[in-house]
Structure formats: structure tokens, C-alpha cells
Amino acid sequence: MGALIPHSVPPMITTPPSHLDYLRRIRSSSVYNVAVRSPLEDCASLGARSGNRVLLKREDLQPVFSFKLRGAYNMMARLDSAVLDFGVIAASAGNHAQGVALAALQLKTTAKVVVPVTTPLIKQQAIRALGAELVVYGNTYDEAFEHANELAKSSGRTFVHPYDDPDVIAGQGTIGLEIHEQYADAIDAVFVPVGGGGLIAGIALALKQLRPSTRVIGVEPEDSNALQQSLAAGKRITLDRTGLFADGVAVRTPGKEPFRIAQELVDEVITVSNDAICGAIKEIFDDRRALLEPAGALAYAGLRAFGEQGKTFVAVATGANLNFDRLRHISERAQIGEHREAVIAIRIPERPGAFLALYESFTGRPITEFNYRLGDEDSAVVFVGVQVTDRAQRLQLMEQLASWGFQATDLTDDEIAKAHVRHMVGGRAGHVVNERVFHFDFPERPGALGAFLTQLGSKWNISLFHYRNHGSDVGRVLAGFQVPEASRPEFDRRLRELGYGWVDVSQNPAIQLFL
After folding, report:
1. Which of 10, 81, 132, 506 has minimal CB crowding within 10 Å?
2. pTM for the full predicted model
3. Whose CA is closest to 71, among 198, 226, 256?
4. End-to-end CA distance of the chain, in Å?
5. Helix (H) or strand (E) holding 461
């Protein structure tokens, strides 16, 4: 093979292409050697729900069930054959890796892909099935990225960046060109999921030159909004951590070139909750019988939350690489995400007939959940799930409960209540002293619990422990510790050293009421 060829990772962009040059690259792209012109479907049912005309750009129908093959192939196809002989390397949470693997197969070169241990199994299997060499390394995408960087320098392989490369951006931009060509009438806005920013940058470069009046709106999860914060700050910021429910967009720092383009061309970036994403997945399934991964449904979730009506909107459905096990969590949360379930804690007097009186108060409203446990001598707290039609009816229900004399707390937006407490209702442990309660994100890897117990459980008594995982990339753990005042500094130090994501939820209202 000869001497190794040095490569920069990420690519050095000394003079960024002009907007017009980008459009030329998009028009001349060879992505259709591997990609299909995905349909732009008019979704009447989705439109009726939002009060708009909704068009869904079905990138989930690509050969690797994701848009990512466009950018990967476009970049790799422009490499010299001598460079391709060395092979390529990529870091990915899953979808980009499949695009690189398929492109390598088409271009008759070899691909090595580094993914973190949190990458869903369905994506790992798909990468191997396409003939790429899979390397599982690190607990986060950032760690996988750094390892791939090192391997690129030592092996001579060319690094294929998932978003911070002009040719990758141009490849993704073919989606914007297709939207323009597939729909002749006016489009008020296009909603685009945002991770590193390559997709929204490419789409904006195409649409803002071909349809200047069309707004380009990015959508991020509330717990992974790096681009929104960066645009507000006027510079790229790095999140301390990201949520992993929508793993396809779990990026801590937007790309340098995508951020530059977004500053110039993206109209707005909005955020949505994970429950809203679950609701969007269900609505798209009901309309299209398509089952999208969380990041794939992100754009439609943003469209639903946008609030405007009577418009023509496009939502880009970016992927369908969904772990089947995750459906349990999605199904559980979809009703709340669609604002069709209220979760309420209600205090009732501990006397005969009180339970019946509460039940009769809900006459005509379907009950989705009812958890009860004797409290103290005077009162008890009941955990209730109730079907509602929308957010306004939920607020009306809370007002009615107050008018009927019930002391009620709305827990519908309380993550701790929904993820843990609803499964643990059993009466408060009044005898526990010096208790602190934390919500942890456990990495799903062997030894994670052992490290936790060694670092914390070996010295402080664990007063509560609840593990909940629905095929996600992290285990959700609620844990309580009895921590005397004198040992708090040492406990806090060990907590930081553990390295897991955590939040002190000792004062959470659901915990105060039920645990």
C-alpha cells in the first residue's frame, strides 16, 4: 500500500464554499448511485391533527432506513481512487455508519466504523451485515470519535465525518433539492431534525436559494439542544451532556461549518420533549403505518408543537432504525406526548367512602391508571392516570378537582413521576432519616452497577433503588441513600467521580407525595 497518507480529522475548511458553489455541488451530486428519491407524501390525517397541510419527506425509506447514506456517499465518491484504496473510517451512533458501509460496498473499498457501546444493537448488526469492520469503543459518541481519529492517523484511512464536511453537507442538501422539485406550490416551512447540523445546513443551502420565502426550522430534543443554544450565544457551545432517547441527534457540539451556515440561513430552532417525540411516532404510525426511530420523528414533533395553522409544512422523516424493545417506552409515553393522558396525584381523607367519592368524580372520563396505598391515619395519596382530549381539558380537570375539594398535583410533565414513581407507589417510608434521592443515567454496559455499588453503596446505606429501561441506551435508575450530614462532602465527591449522569431529586413533588 505504500506510505500512509496523512488526513485531517475533522477536515480543515480554510475557505468555505459559497452558497452558489454549494448549490452546484448539490445539483451535481452522485448520491443516486446508492440513494433513492424518497417520496414526499401528503398526510391528510397528520394535517388534520395539526390544522395544516403536512407533507412528510420519507427518508426512512432509503436502503439503510436513514438519510445518512447521501452525505457519506457524496463525500466518498469524490475521493481519488488511490485514497480510496486505503479504505475509510467513521465514528457514528449508528445511522451514519450504515451509510458509510453501504457507500464503501458500492465504491469497492473497505470501511471501519467506531461506535460507542450505547449504539442500539439493531444498528450494530446492520453495519456488520453491510461488510464493514465494526469497532465498539467508549461510552459516548465523543469517545468513539476520538478513537476513530487516532485510527485514521495510524492507518491511512480517510475519515468520513458525519456532518462537518462540505461534501457531506452537499449530499444531505439533495433532500432540499428534491423537496423543491417534488412540490410546485408554496411551502411555508420545512422542519428538520438537528444533531451535528449537516442535514439542516444542506437543506437550507438548497431551499433558501430556490425558495427564499420558505422558512427552515430546526428541531432538537429539549435535552440535546446544542444548535439552539449556540445560535443564541453567537458561538458554538458544548453541552455538558445530552439525552440519549433520540440517539441519532445526541451531539454535544454542532459542527463548525454547519453552524456557520445555520447562522446565515436557518430561521429558527425549536425544542420538543421526549414525550412529544413518542406522540409523533404514534401519529406517524397511525397515518403511514411507518415506525420511525425517535430522531426520525423529531421534525414532525416540532411541526406539531409549532402552533401555526392553515399553512403548508414539510417534516423530514429521517430514519427508522428503531430497537423493537424501545416500543414499550414509546407506547407508554405516547398518550402523554399527544396530550391525551393526565397523570395526577390526589390526596384523599383516610375514611370509608373517600375512595368511592374520588372514583365517582371521574365518571365519564376513562381511567388509564389507579394506584393506591394506605398513607397515614388521616389521609392517603392516589396516583391516577386519566384520558383527556388535549392540554386544555387537562387544565380544566385540575380546576374541577380543586372545586370538588380535592388536593391534587399535576405530575404529567414530571419525568421522575412517569419514569419511576408510578411503578413504585406503595406508601412513604417515614422512618428513613438523612435520605437523599437521585436520578441516574446508568451506561448499559457490564459492570455499571458494580461500579455504582463500589463507589457509593459500599459506604452509605441504599434506602431506595428502582431500575427502569425499555431498550434505551442508558438505564434509568432512581436511588436513595442515607447520608449523615458529616459525610456529605465525601459523598458529593464520590458522586462526581462516578461519572454517571445524575440529578438530585430529593425535593421532587412525586417523591415527597409517594415515597
Report:
1. 81
2. 0.77
3. 198
4. 65
5. strand 461-468
